[in-house]
Design a protein that fits this description.
alpha/beta, six-stranded mixed beta sheet
């Protein structure tokens, strides 16, 4: 019956790409016939099918049928107020921070965390938080009625089937910085629905003919946060859920040149609001700020209420394209949110810094440098994002790290590994900071500019601060891209009588005379 599903065909031993679909989908087929097929589990469709006029007509038929048969609001089913958050797996750290931040700012209502079964596991770190209930969307009775249930599609399912009459919905990567309860008060929520705005790039992310309506006011909607009085929002949530259930058509997943539906889930809510003529409230037309991969969204009085980390997400390095970045001068309550993130990371168990901290040192170089720094007083010239700094601090007695660049990334990783107290992060030039950095040092890493003159100058600056028998490391030594490093080191070896003390990849160690 479901031989059109690739995973079933694969289980039978056939190549999904080589199987003949059981239905001959054509751009000239009757719209009503296509509409009937689109109520079934998703088929493997021909390339370009979304752009067929009959595909649009079939989905308009399905939407009109859904509106005619939409269930009425279920009296007595919902009560109270609560928060709904969707996520797990690589989003679990963000979920944990969102739950802790809700409690931090005074939210005393229940919190439900919805996840998609084994695809988005949720550990005891979240399950054991007070007042948090974890719901498996894949095993929920309402799941059987859905054709599709990805990470975006689960949002309307979770809100509709949560037990709350009043719902604060948050994306996993969004959290409040003061108590959001006032968003439910009538003077701040006159229509029972509060939405938040997106940047202008999202204004044109809806192809309105796909929904059979003229364009709306043109202001984009951001799907990271909603406030719903469920009775008032019932029809909007139902219709948005219908669009989500046909995300194989309605999700275009591009912010430019949208030719069908909308970018993703938030456009389905926007389309449902407009299709039904449902009034909703906003506090600003645009986010208060969009910087460092985060939106800052306003509350009822125009002051910041939510931080939405749409790129700068809380997660271990490698889970997303970029590791999380620390921006205390930019994002409100950054220190508190990071404290909870570090709490989650610590509970996750210690990992090898060489496996987690971003940077240029190879794993072999990290291990050699960690062993060389064991029990020593270390001076570091050049830290980048803090990989060599963290590796040294795990084994060293203390570390003084000098660099021109911001110390925020290194600060984070040092906190992550519980060694921040052992490190003095200094920002400025090596020549200016070296004399006031203490000493003598029994280990030193020189990893600043990689031309001959700068390496020679760095050596001259540190030699007076080295103890007898100190270990001196040079990164990118013998790297053909940086010949000046080896040239300057050769001169220092001849001048000061240094002896080779170890090597891994492009990290070379030398020992000063005792």
């Amino acid at each position: 019956m479901f031989a059109h599903r690739p995973e079933v065909r694969a289980a039978w031993g056939g190549d999904p790409a080589g199987c003949v679909p059981p239905v001959d989908f054509r751009p000239d087929m009757p719209a009503a016939a296509l509409a009937e097929l689109l109520t079934e589990p998703p088929y493997v469709m021909p390339d370009g099918w979304k752009l067929w006029p009959v595909a649009r007509e079939a989905h308009l038929i399905l939407a009109e049928r859904f509106l005619a048969e939409m269930p009425a609001y279920p009296e007595g089913r919902f009560a109270g107020r609560g928060a709904v958050i969707c996520g797990g797996g690589r989003y679990e750290a963000s979920v944990y921070v969102a739950c802790r931040m809700l409690r931090e700012v005074g939210w005393r209502h229940p919190i439900q965390v919805w996840h998609r079964g084994p695809a988005e596991p949720v550990s005891d770190r979240v399950r054991q938080l007070p007042g948090v209930e974890v719901v498996d969307a894949e095993s929920h009775p309402a799941r059987a009625a859905r054709r599709l249930l990805g990470g975006w599609e689960v949002k309307t399912l979770a809100v509709l089937n949560s037990p709350f009459e009043e719902v604060l919905f948050l994306d996993a990567d969004c959290y409040p910085i003061y108590d959001p309860n006032e968003c439910f008060e009538p003077e701040h929520n006159p229509h029972g629905i509060v939405t938040w705005p997106d940047n202008p790039i999202g204004d044109e992310c809806v192809h309105w003919p796909s929904y059979g309506v003229a364009p709306d006011d043109g202001y984009a909607l951001n799907g990271g946060h909603y406030v719903y009085a469920k009775r008032a929002a019932w029809r909007v949530l139902q219709l948005a859920g219908h669009y989500d259930d046909h995300s194989d058509y309605y999700y275009w997943r591009s912010v430019t040149g949208v030719a069908v539906g909308g970018f993703g889930d938030q456009e389905q809510v926007r389309a449902a609001l407009h299709r039904l003529g449902a009034p909703h409230h906003r506090y600003t037309r645009r986010p208060l700020a969009c910087r460092h991969g985060s939106y800052i969204q306003a509350g009822p009085h125009g002051r910041p209420l939510f931080v939405h980390r749409f790129f700068n997400k809380f997660a271990p390095a490698g889970d997303f394209a970029l590791p999380p970045q620390w921006h205390p001068g930019s994002n409100p309550m950054e220190l508190v949110a990071w404290r909870y993130f570090l709490d989650w990371m610590s509970a996750a168990g210690a990992a090898d810094p060489a496996d987690e901290v971003p940077g240029w040192f190879t794993t072999a170089e990290c291990r050699l440098w960690a062993e060389a720094c064991r029990g020593r007083d270390v001076l570091e010239l050049g830290r980048h994002l803090g990989r060599s700094t963290t590796v040294a601090a795990v084994t060293a007695k203390r570390v003084v790290s000098l660099d021109r660049a911001d110390d925020g990334p290194a600060d984070f990783w040092l906190q992550r590994y519980g060694v921040r107290h052992k490190v003095w992060l200094r920002v400025g030039t090596f020549a200016a900071l070296g004399p006031s950095s203490g000493g003598p040092f029994t280990a030193c890493l020189i990893d600043g500019a990689h031309d001959r003159d700068n390496v020679a100058a760095d050596i001259a600056n540190v030699v007076p601060h080295l103890a007898p028998g100190a270990v001196v490391g040079f990164h990118d030594h013998d790297d053909p891209n940086f010949p000046g490093v080896a040239e300057a080191v050769a001169e220092a070896v001849a001048a000061h009588g240094w002896k080779p003390a170890g090597r891994a990849d492009f990290l070379a160690l030398f020992e000063t005379p005792r």
